[in-house]
Write a structure and sequence with these properties.
The chain has 397 residues and is of the alpha/beta class. It has helices at residues 4-10, 19-27, 39-52, 93-99, 127-134, 141-151, 160-168, 170-185, 194-197, 223-231, 260-263, 310-313, 340-354, 373-392, and strands at 29-35, 56-60, 71-73, 79-81, 88-90, 105-107, 112-116, 119-123, 215-219, 236-240, 250-256, 273-283, 293-295, 305-308, 320-328, 335-336, 359-361. Bound molecules: flavin-adenine dinucleotide and uridine-5'-diphosphate.
Length: 397
Amino acid sequence: DRTFAAMKQAMAPAPVNNVATAILTRRAHYDALVVGAGFAGSVLAERLAAGSGKRVLVIDRRPHIAGNAYDHADAAGIMVHRYGPHIFHTNSDDVLAYLSRFTEWCPYEHRVLASVRDKLVPIPINRTTLNTLYGLDLADEAQAAAFLAARAEPRAIETSEDVVVAAVGRELYETFFQGYTRKQWGLDPSQLDKAVTARVPTRTDTDDRYFLDKHQVMPAAGYTAMFRRMLDHPNITVETGVEFADCDVRADHVVFTGPVDEYFGHRYGKLPYRSLQFRHETHDMAQFQPVAVVNYPAPDVPYTRITEYKHLTGQVAPRTSISYEIPQAEGDPYYPIPRAENQALYRRYEALADALPDVSFVGRLATYRYYNMDQVVGQALATYRRLAPRLASGLAE
Ligand code: FAD
Ligand code: UDP
């Protein structure tokens, strides 16, 4: 039980500003107001405070910090991720080094199985997937490659359908990708940018890891504990449960990490974001499924995947907690939807954003990019590097 002590520490109540402090601080003047306490906002807040000595107010409309990476102990004492499985992986030494100031890590390599034709098989598709699904005995990479080449339909690659059909052919595409993608995005893969399904490679070896990044680790005491340390600075005040629209503080600079179209009052119409419903359950068994995530591509099942959190954290307990992800159009915005017409609409909002020198738009929602956590951290650090010289020349004075 490698993380138990660390997790117990993480479960201690978060330091919360009391009401009197909240009222006082809201009357005050800040060098920077950061909207959103997720990766984008928390990294900028930490850098502005610790790197540039600025006084920063961080607000979030949710009752907690850490944005979509928020984790906590549920009623059964199991560490879960409220907004679905968050697995940290990066090729960036710099991003890892930066976050390592605020957390220790546990090694974790993510493995996913797909439930198809009453079997659990590895996804990304690899040689084991092919052998299990078709009862074959493909012995090496060359044989697996030949099997796929006989089915692949080479074509110009523009959409998320093209990526997969060109690599593995129509049958495997329909089995693993078409139903899952239609559920996840409410669109056929042919209506989505190639980048979406290109996140999932095809392999001819038997490597069944979901990611191949150089660094694959989980924060030892959890994400929320890491964020707490990031935001624990005398120059940073955090107020959760606060809407940007209701916040009348004065600040020289604003960092906005919410949806960019919302900032501009949906002036050009709503930018589409895909939402999810998370159904959390605790079961009276030590283990629910063999790996952390099982994908369900079948169209007749409403959810896309089931996550069992103990696999991610290493926690040992007699019971186990899982979550189902049921995609939906309405609700909290979780995913920008990568396709040309949405990108065109985003560009119009981006032009409005670029015209505001005193507001930085950062993160997955504010820059409408399907970014992983490490990419958001990299983007936030780059934003800080651009801002820092301006700040040094007295933005806040
Ligand atoms: P967020 O985390 O969304 O933070 C934005 C914050 O701003 C929110 O807390 C929101 O409440 C607040 N906010 C917005 N508007 C306002 C307002 N007007 N007033 C006040 N507060 C406001 N990445 C990985 O690297 N690995 C994974 O395994 C992974 N799995 C994921 C699984 C799911 C289901 C989802 C949805 C995402 C996953 N991600 C994963 C992506 C990861 O969640 C994001 O890259 C990262 O959390 C984005 O950080 P952010 O700060 O840009 O946005
Ligand atoms: N995908 C799929 N079947 C799978 C896994 C992924 O069709 O078994 C497609 C789907 O469109 C999904 C995209 O590939 O949205 C990216 O998958 P990833 O696991 O990276 O999604 P995320 O973790 O970001 O939700």
